[in-house]
Amino acid sequence: MSFMEKLRGQLIDIIEFLDESRDTIVWRFPRQGNEIKNQAKLVVREGQSAVFVSEGRLADVFGPGTYTLETKNLPILSTIQGWKYGFSSPFKAEVYFVATRQFTDLTWGTQNPVILRDPELGAVRIRAFGTYALQVVDPSALLRQLVGTDPQFRTDEIGDYFRRLVVGQLGPALAEAGVAAIDLAANQREIATRLAGQLSEDLSEYGIAVPRFVLENVSFPPEVEAALDKRTQMAVVGNLDQYTKFQAANAIETAAANPGGAGDGLGLSAGMGLGAAMGQQLAQSLGGAAPAPNAAPAQPAAPTAGPPPLPAAESPWYWAVGGTQAGPGTTADLAGRVRSGEVTRASLVWQQGMAAWTAAGEVPALAPLFGATPPPLPPTGAPTGPVAG
């Protein structure tokens, strides 16, 4: 091999990037003095792009493939450099390899809780976390806006900015969803899709898209979660009275399976409690209220002022009509008979307490029924008024 062939072999280079880090987005090919030989081989693999930067200006972008770096392959760069030194002259340029594959399983989370106005719970503080994927869709925009001259740009350099961007968009996305906080789990996919579109739009100026965004969990503060747990327990229990009886029955069964000592005492106390509950239920079903367990005996009521007792009922009257007994009846009944002429002063009457049948006109209690009787008229010729003295 001649000296010129060896020299020509040294001038031809291979420019490539084999990523073993799995988190490098942009990597600058190292070159002494940034010199790249004419007719060097450029190898760009799937999921990569190669960006040439010459004298601070972005010259060319290459997609996947193998290229021989010469004038016909670098029209923009050749215009910048001039290619005036011939076949073997080097040209100064920087080559940046940009990973265009998806970077998956990147995590995000809210460092501080997001305040959300919930239609059921009111103002609540929630935290959320999940994963996302990034993908470079415009390598030139990425270099201009974020990378600059960074020789190795990794995912963690954009991670903090992305997390702040997510938190800024999370609150509006949850508010626009219009669902209660306890229903967010059923709407996580829809909310995540909306966030992915919004984040891709915000990152478009950097040449980055968010092809996948996952909202894994939305959590409440511990005190709110404890209150929700109690609410769930009450809904599961349902009828507290039936639940109490069920617990008492289980206690009796457990005590029966463990005789002696504390088991007997537990069974006895549970049985007494269950018996008292059954007694109360029975009393309520009969229309009365059962006394509370261990209640003190009822005290006699203190005497209170009130009206005198009612008079004793009137004994009935019996009377004789044509030699036949009639009655019984009240004094008002007799009064009706007197007005009709059925009972006269000579009619015999009797009432409990009288020794024998007596003429009605001779009974003092019935005298008002017959009215006052005037005295007999005086004899003829006798003075009818007072005699003057």
Set down the secondary structure blueprint.
Layout: H1 3-11, E1 14-15, E2 24-28, E3 35-36, E4 41-44, E5 48-54, E6 57-62, E7 65-68, H2 75-81, E8 91-92, E9 94-99, E10 103-109, E11 114-118, E12 122-136, H3 139-147, E13 152-154, H4 156-177, H5 188-203, E14 208-219, H6 222-237, H7 240-257, H8 262-285, E15 317-321, E16 324-329, H9 331-340, E17 348-351, E18 358-359, H10 367-370
Helix pairs in contact: 4-5, 7-8
Keywords:
389 residues, alpha+beta, 5-stranded antiparallel β-sheet, 4-stranded antiparallel β-sheet, 10 helices, 18 strands
Task: Give a description of the structure.
With 389 residues, the protein is an alpha+beta fold. Helix content is 35%, strand content 25%. A 5-stranded antiparallel sheet has the order 6-5-9-2-13, sandwiched between helices. Strands 10, 11, 12 and 14 form a 4-stranded antiparallel sheet that branches. Strand 11 (114-118) and strand 12 form a beta hairpin. Helix 4 crosses helix 5 and helix 7 (240-257) packs antiparallel against helix 8 (262-285). The longest helix is centred in the last third of the chain and has 24 residues, at 262-285. The chain starts with a helix and ends in a 19-residue tail after the last helix. 17% of the residues are buried. The model is unreliable at 5-11 and 82-88 (pLDDT under 50).
